[in-house]
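Final report, Chapter 2: Outcomes

The project's central promise was a pipeline that accepts a single protein chain and returns its three-dimensional structure in a standardized token representation, suitable for archiving and comparison. That pipeline is now operational. To close this chapter, we reproduce one record exactly as it appears in the project archive, with the input sequence first and the structure output second.
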Amino acid sequence: MENRQHTEKRKGKNTPQNRRHYVSLRERRRRRRRRQIILRAAAACGTIVLVILGVSLFMVLGRHDKKAPEKPEDENAKLLEQYYADFIADAGGTEKKKTGFSSWFLENCGEDAWKKISGKLGGASLKETDFYEITGKTLHVLSDMYQGRLKDEKTAAKHHIYIRENGEKKAAGLLIAGDICLEEDDFVIDYYDEVQELNQCISPEILQRTNEADVFLLNHEYCISDRGEPLEGKYYTFRADPKRMKLIEELGTDMVSLANNHVYDFGADAFSDTMELLLQSGIPYVGGGHDIEEAKQPVYFVANGVKIGFVAASRAEKTRYTPQAEEDAPGVLLMYESEEFAEVIEKASLACDYLIAYVHWGTEDSNQFEDYQHDQAEVLLDSGADMIIGSHPHVLQGIEFIKGKPVIYSMGDFWFNGETKYTGLLDIKVTGEGLSGISFVPCRQTEYTTRYLAEKEEQRELYDYLEELSVGVKIGDGGEIQEESHGGFDR
């Protein structure tokens, strides 16, 4: 009975009424699934649209960002490039690299230095001295580094630049002497051959100073060769044997001036030998050369981050035995007229921080400088020299400041003969801001030797003597040289 009732229920599903019910139910389910599929598709499409909109917005913003104003760092880089370009133009415009200095500066001087320079660029207050204060190197030195001139000593020498490292010194130290002559007969070399030790001829205190200086310069007033004949008609002619080069080296000589009236005493061959022997010893020279271009060529030293230049010329002979260098002939640079040497000075001064002109002039054996020396000194200083140092009179002459720049008219004989006379060394300190100090190292030449005056009383006597020869100059008890208008020294 129950089975039949159950069977009847199942059979009841196939009634027309039931079939319509189930068809309607399936249709509703299909419609619901279709709506779900459409909604899912719409959601997917919406996501795709949003992604496309996001990418498009990013690209638009990216394009907008590229067109936005440059960052301050980029603007400062442009300012530094322009500053360097102006500096190059003022220095003669010979540099190969015209752009890219700002990137090089950041890479080689560091971020801290870049930030400090940038701060001054932004305020348009940058000065050349700021580079030295911030990096320890002047803009001239940084430029030479950037241009590759200071890559190594050999490369620097090709550009007539010599590098001197001075450790912890706060300034470049220069030491300048007067005339030296190693003539073989009846001069100081005879005494040296007797004692065979340089420190018996020149005080150890002096030798220590000349060897420790960043740059030691003297006037090489003789030729050094085993060739040539004395110039006809010339009363004094000086020549040393090539073996004497060791004495110049032992002195600690960094450079010599050839602009004088005895370096050509034995003719062109001996003069050429002199230059070659100096170069073989690593000692550059100024004021003479195989041709006029070399005779005019300045020599530069980089010490303590400062670039110091030297040039030299001569006007020492009333009867001219020593020839002017020519386009295809050796000789020295003469300055009987100021114009040519003034042009050399003007060009050299643009390429360095401090320029010294070493000149051979004046009247022999006179401790008074001539009016023409003062007048010519003024022209040379106006042309760009920062200091003038003289030789030739064989005795000390006075000192004066012209427009704030020192002129030392004659340094006398440094080690020359057996006469007894005052002499000395000029001790010069230079920083990136210019001359920081100048003093006189007191010495006396006597009996074929040069001795340091160690006694304070003797030193003071020399300083008083030099003051009397000078114009408007005071010399302190330590040898400090100063314009009298600056107040002098307490004694």
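Archive annotation: The longest helix spans residues 16-66.
This record, like all others produced under the grant, will remain available to the consortium after the project formally closes.
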